[in-house]
Amino acid sequence: MPPTTPAYKRILLKLSGEALLGDQNYGIDPAVASQIARDVAEIQALGIEIAIVIGGGNIFRGVAASARGMDRATADYMGMLATVINALALQDALEQAGVNTRVVTAIEMREVAEPFIRRRAVRHLEKKRVVVFGAGTGNPYFSTDTAAALRAMEIKAEVIFKATKVDGIYDADPMLYPQATRFEKISYQQVLEQGLKVMDATAISLCMDNRLPIVVFNLRTPGNIKRAISGEPIGSLVTA
Q: Across-strand partners of 114?
């Protein structure tokens, strides 16, 4: 079999906190973290520069807490700290898979991670270290989707890979509506107009303004990240 020719050189992988749950209701399943780490190690071996933004929903959801009466800014900061816990768990899994990794946070906590400095983060990527971005953008009212879009611009990633539980973008929730139709390609404008829950509107707008493509695919299929990297038409592509 011929070696895979990567379609991209530098990517940003967006993982939800729920991706680390596995079959649990709360927390981190080490087996799932290890599987993700193996998939990342496989594409890193192809010479791809990889940054990761991870959410915190498996531990704490700021939006859900504020809906129940907690101050929104406080709830969002708590959610950001949850993403750092996930980033450290992912760093551990990656390093056990033999991948040099740096956790970089938008909120300073020097004992556990580096503060975000754009040029330093890019240098890590050039040295083929995987960079895991924690603590979102460091600002309340912004989601980790928006953090992914922002960091992708800052490091000049060529694409955002948004890993989900389903194999792309549908016109309705395929878990609830089995007859829902999957889009192979869709424009940013269509995503916004139809209110599709791909990423939030701020993240989509940021990608649209900077013409950054988004590939939405199923993380739970082993090897899918590699297929996406090699340009195979898996999942859904959001583009201009």
A: 104
Alpha helices in 4-67 (DSSP H): 30-44, 62-67
Element (H, E) at 118: helix 118-126
Tokens 């959610």 — which residue? 79
89-144, pLDDT tens digit by residue? 999 999 999 999 999 999 999 999 999 999 999 999 999 999 999 999 999 999 99
Percent of the chain with pLDDT over 90: 81
The answer to whether the beta carbons of residues 239 and 212 sit under 8 Å apart is no
φ, ψ of residue 135 to 5 degrees: the values are 65, 25
18: helix, strand or coil = helix
Kindly list the structural domains of the chain, giving each domain's residue range(s) and its CATH number in brackets, ordered by start: 10-239 (3.40.1160.10)
Between strands 182-183 and 169-170, the pairing is antiparallel
48: left (phi over 0), alpha (psi -120 to 50) or beta: beta
Tens of pLDDT, residue by residue over 5-54, are: 788 999 999 999 999 998 899 999 999 999 999 999 999 999 999 999 99
The DSSP-derived string for 122-153 is: HHHHHTT-EEEEESTTSSTT--HHHHHHHHHH
**Cβ 114 vs Cβ 124: under 8 Å:** no
CA 61 from centre of chain: 16
**How many whole angstroms separate alpha carbon 240 and alpha carbon 237?**
10
